[in-house]
Amino acid sequence: MRQTVGRACIELLVAGALVISTCPAFAHHSAAMFEEKKTITVEGVVKEFQFTNPHSWLLVDVTDKSGKVTTWGFEAEGPSTLQRAGIRPSELPVGTKLTITGRPMKDGRPAAIWEFAVKADGKRLDPREGFQVK
Amino acid sequence: MNGRGIGAVTLAALTVLLSACGTSVAPTPGPAESKIPDHTKERNIALGLAHKTAAELYDALKQEAGGGTRLNPSGLPDWTGVYTRASVNGFAFDADQAPGGLPPAKLTPEYHDKMLKRIEAVKQAVEWDPISTCAPPGHPRWLTEPFLREFIVTPDQTWLVNEMVNDIRRIYTDGRGHPPEEDRYPLYNGDSIGFWDGDKLVIHTNQLQAGIYQRSHPDYTDQVETVEIWQKAGDNLLTADVWVYDPPALAEPWYVKQSYSRLSDPNLRIRYWHCGENQNNSVFQTQTGSTQFQDFTFTGTDDRQGGKP
Fold this sequence. Notes:
The complex is a heterodimer. By secondary structure, chain A is mainly beta.
């Protein structure tokens, strides 16, 4: 079910920001279908958090200035790694407003590797922190 | 009073003394002292070179350990907890691989060329990982995955558990050998037998399938075999000295040291890992040999186009 979006400001920053990736982002499949260096940043609301193995998907509804809604999918690690990063389903219920940055797909589909997200309260959610040993 | 009586009195007095000092006597005996010494990396490399096959190295270690010992059920090594492998240059099989460098294995020319071609293809964004089908990584790649792990020690078997795809290596330490030649066939994790030398678990694994050590790494063949020495190297650290033998692909045995750290979060638990539970993770191999997603189910655009990108 598509969530109603109050207001969403889309900011496509395909700005070529260099993403330094020294730790693995994926275990199941290659990330060859994603841009290696470009990033995008969008604002939207959580439509659904698919907390699954081997990868989770955070679905974010993004509305442009004309009112058109696009659902973006942001791929991240599976549940246990996200738990180690402090990212749980209860952290991102449906309707949560956030800004999220990722490396988009090369073929233009609205999907990306989840680099980091920032919630309205300022909390930063970085899936890769789940690979830290602590 | 006989000698036994003196011993009992002495032990009782010692117990009272230690109690008074706030120290208790250990209730169960621990593992026997190991006979196989710890070596430097250079010495372990030489040890691998000194033996032509993994089986020869394993047999030599077993002889050095006096045949090994059966664990005392009341004094098992404490390998409890949830562990993980810390990231070393990503998933690098060899912790000593230089950042941006090549895996430091001594490969045969054929397999060196294959590795270089794989790495060059990745630079062109052409990459396909065999585990994209949800297949298990297989051993020895099993050693490198960065997810949760548990190590279950019993006197006659030790289970080395990797969270990813519920992957368990069973190490038989009850004295059995490998299956007879005529009953062997390639397995993802092979067939593993082992023995205990004090608190060290020595393992020989054969009967493996061909695979890759990791992405941007060399191939190994179905002739690959390993010898491992696992031990607790600290309160929160398990290590494994690993020798890999694979004559078609390795010009010399590849010695590496793997480390697994115990995590402190008491809420971490290993859950069932269903690799195919989310169709949005489904990928296929393209005509160029690279990786691409199937149709997503979450985008309005895909919905309108009947699921096609």
